[in-house]
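### Sample
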Amino acid sequence: MASNDIRGARMSRGDRRVLIASSLGAVFEAYDFYLAGSLAVIISKQFFSGVNPGAAFVFTLLSFAAGFAVRPFGSIVFGRIGDRIGRKYTFLFTISLMGISTFLIGLLPSFSEIGIAAPIIFICLRLLQGLSLGGEYSGAATYVAEHAPAAKRGAWTAWIQTPATLSLLLSLVIILGVRYVVGDDAFSAWGWRVPFLLSAVLLAASIWIRLKLRESPVFSRMKEQNKASRAPLKEAFGQWRNLRLSLIALFGLVAGQAVVLYTGQFYALFFLTQTLKVDMTTANILIGVALIACTPFFIVFGVLSDLVGRKPVIMVGLLIAAFAYFPLFKGLTHYVNPALEHALDQSPIEVVANPADCSFQFNPTGTAHFTSSCDIAKQALATAGLSYRNVATADSSTALIRVGADSVPAYAALSPRAREEAGRFTAALTEALSKAGYPRRADPAQINWGMTLLILICLGLLITATYGPVAAVLAEMFPTRIRYTAVSLPYNIGNGWFGGFLPATAFAIVAASGDIYAGLWYPVSLIVMTFLVGIVLLPETKSTDLEAEPAFQPREPDNEKYRSKPGRSRSEINNGFRGL
């Protein structure tokens, strides 16, 4: 049995340092994400002011999307480095790259000062952040798992998830605090830079703590025994037995975990603000309080996975989420904005249009343009968070919105008088909705705060159940020599792409169907897929010996061809690959 599996029950000072240092990456990731989202409007004015305001905001969103898109590529780069050089120095480098990029955004001159160089540098910094994130989480998960006692690996790795939820509150407090101290005008001019610059404190603490760490004992013993992989990418994804496990990890574990995370945090926030008309500050506070209340349950479910197994905890969490999402979000409507619920029931909205003129408005980068009168009508209603019924007509004339007894014709964006028509359309639709009783904002006096918070806590508990044990499962699924590489790619594809596309996909589904709850079919579908794949194919990994070949992964004699041994040349190793 490995020495790291027979240590005493008490956590040493060095063990606590491992957990704190590894968790700081999650703090940085979440802190940067919330800053970028909260300050998107200001950032668009600072770095993309050379174009019109609408296009500037689109380019800002595109730069954030690019950060998500490159995460899997970062996982390939840093995963290979982590398996070749070591865990400590790799994720020391990733957090340094992440922190420096965040800090430099606070120093970057605006478009008015350096012209086109401003948006180019800004996008490059976002790409560097995305690349570093691709190697950060997998490095932390691998490092902690390889330090943890086997009987407590679920509990130890669950700590990596806990700081991320607290970062939401940290970023919110700093933004609101700086805005309050300097005033709105100064904040828009220069105060927005302060939250980015303050990340230097977090970066310095992170580097200082990580410099004190030692290399993973499991990785060190593997290196001493000359068992390290010379080509971790080829071994992880070029051999079917390892690639198969990566695909199972993606489709039977991470995809579902990712959409549960994004639904409980980001889609819930979007639903509160866009659909239920809660002001942004109040919605952020509600989400923040719920997540803080749920944070200890990451550890609870991590401990539970050590007792009963990783797979039962995660699969039960996924199953509950699949059945609970629609009732929970309908409950939010009932308790947050009962006036909206009443208007939807008493004065239903209809969109009368030729289906051939209507597009599926999937727009993950914010760069697509939907110009038909049907698209304009549906986009206006979906953006306002309103349900409607599609009424098909063979007539190709202008789409019509019926609200109670009123009818509001839409317009085509390519019309010569589009700007005038847009103003007319917006005013007429606003008047018709007001007459039908549709509220422009949620009335705080009608919000049931207790039930709202309870529902958000339920969404948060589903996150903790499915996310808490994930790091342990991923680390235990793969052998030490390729663990960093093999963990990185499925995790970053799942969270960067499946999770990152959730808002855009959900909006497109709502716009196409006219049902404000229809966007939930995206996470529910992925959750059901993940549950079915996971229940059949995902192995139970609890108590796996990290220094042995996983019991569920068959041994192959040719495996020795991919390990570095004294006296073996690169040509001999390449011949081994060609012999497969």
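The radius of gyration is 25 Å. This sample (MFS transporter) is used throughout the tutorial notebook.
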